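From the shared-data thread, chain only:
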Amino acid sequence: MDSQELLSLCRRRGFLWPAYDIYGGFAGFYDYGPLGAALKSNIEEHWRRLYVHEEGFQELVCPLIAPEPVFEASGHLDAFADMYVECEGCGETHRADHLAAGMHDNPASLSEEELGKLLGDNGVKCPSCGGALTPPRRFNLMFKTPVGAGSAKPGYLRPETAQGMFVNFSQVYRYGREKLPVGAVQIGRAFRNEISPRQGLLRLREFSLMEAEVFFHPERKTWPRYDRVKDEKLPLLPDGGSVGEMSLSDAVGKGVIANEALAYFIWLTLRFASEIGLDRRRVRFRQHARDEMAHYASDCWDFEAETGYGWVELVGVADRGCYDVQAHLRHSGADLTAFEPFDEPREATEEVVRPRFDVMGKLFKGRTKAIAEELSKLSPEEVRGTEEVGVVVGDEVFKVPSSCFEVASATRKVAGEKFVPHVIEPAYGVDRILYCLLEHAYRKDGDYVTLSLKGSVAPIKAGVFPLMARDGLDGVAMEIRETLAVAGIAAYFDDAGSIGRRYARMDEVGTPCCVTIDYQTKEDGTVTLRDRDTKEQKRVEGERVAAAVAEAVARSSPAASGGGM
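Structure, as tokens:
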């Protein structure tokens, strides 16, 4: 389909508006109009139903700005960058790897020099004016901002919601009764200073994410509900293979998907997508190639949808190992470990830093005990091979020579073991999902347009129309709209134009059904209920209108199938 045609409908009907349009717009930013805001909220609420209400994950809300050390630990300061080129003629900037599409399996994996040579060898010029391009340069995608006045500390708008959940692992773990697996989720805004945002909602500088961080014991990556769904089939595109349907159990058993937990959340992604209305025939899971996957990930799959722009990534589901929690543990010094008790206490031998009191007493006199206590808290790695170490006691720093301590073995009884949890992360891009949902729902018959949205996500559930805006019909229609509103059903009153034009307006924005109040209503209290997709009409008693509308909406909503596939 013509993507511009859909975007035109979105602007005209109040789904999406270009941000700050009266000032010429602002690339990479969109406003959601009334219908878009409602659709987005409904998508998010359905995701919350699955991850928070059904799976029992903890929902967090973390700040949009984080201090610099967070992104030093996560690696974003060093590695969160894309390469760009600039036109020497018109000054336009372009993503360098995008210009190399089709010239290499993964242009983003190349160095600046390699990518520059690839573009040069293929004679790539500026897409805007045909001018010569500069060599590729790296550009960090985070927005930096000073926090506070005067000697302000550097902060960054978060490029994802994940870090807030990683740094809160200890609280999530305690709130979850110190049992694994345990999950945290967050729905919220994120920011990336994209080099050349294009394609409407598919590449934005401010966008919404729905992310889950699920923490596991490293050796037990399974999920309680896995056995219920292990025979469900998924459209998989493995690295080096072709798209085919495969059950979860076969995919895990053959090593196509790394483990049962990852397979479960891949399936849950497909369930979510199907329930909100994405076309099952136009989606797939594509496995990351080895040179595409993060070095710390053991497996990663992108959930993709086919659109007018080609195949678009909507969700990433990855086994990230212990990388994220371990990075914050090392950088902050906080204890972000989990604990597993043994059935019976065990003897464990470990290396410890042992003070030598006979030597220390001659050097530190009455301060020996206090210094020795702090010295014994150090790890063998911190002191091994050093000539002296610094020890803080109160406000004083004491330099302790290596003659005052030794690294020795000690045997003790232990009740369990500490470990750094592993993480499986499903990360959903809300804006991309919303756009693809609209495109998959778009139907056109001649000039007549219908959005066949699922009732559960449709921004308006019912249109309410008086046949004529007189003779008291409009008053009855307003009463019915209020009845629906009290029942929690989003209804829209419209008395302008012919009844056919009003039906067309509701069909165009995806409203599942319409209620028409006519002169027969005044005689017997019945109203006409019209179905969007079948165009069928039937008479319904006025006192049953809320129930009848709810049934019509439910026929195309997840509740109708009990939340299954």
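DSSP finds 20 helices and 28 strands in the chain.
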